Amino acid sequence: MLHSLYRLNLMHQDARRQQGVTLLEMLVVLVIIALLAGLVGVRLLSQVDRSKAVAAKAQVESLKSAIESLRADIGRLPTAEEGLTLLTVAPPEMSNWFGPYMDAEIPLDPWGRPYRFETDAAGREYFLYTLGEDGVVGGQGAGQDIGKLPPAAQ
Predict the structure, then answer these.
(1) Considering only CA atoms, which of 79, 106, 116 is closest in space to residue 94?
(2) Domains of the chain and CATH, by start
(3) 8-state DSSP, 102
(4) What is the pLDDT of residues 77-115, one digit of tens each?
(5) DSSP code of residue 143
């Protein structure tokens, strides 16, 4: 009888040992998960930067197309004062404006800033660009300027 109680107690201890997870095992699993998350996170963030640059290039091309359509209709580029707003809002005195030339409002760049629009002194050439993630002229990677840049910014 004593022997049976002893065996029963051992079986109960084995079952209890197998039921739980030790703190060390949990820490090992958490470290592995953190390492995997770190590796995946870095790759994911680089994809986000790349996708923002692709989106900016696509938006610049769309805006350039709208500017060329506007130029064909009114015979000139928007002035610095009119800017890109002329693509969506007709001035009251302009009878040859057949827009809006954009389906929606003028988009912000993927970093939340307005696109830059400038013309040369003669008003014959325009420059349309974004300064990238860093918001400063020049830059590399995600901070690279995107679009049709003025000669001084190239």
Answers:
(1) 79
(2) 43-153 (3.30.700.10)
(3) S
(4) 998 888 899 899 888 888 888 878 888 889 999 999 999
(5) G
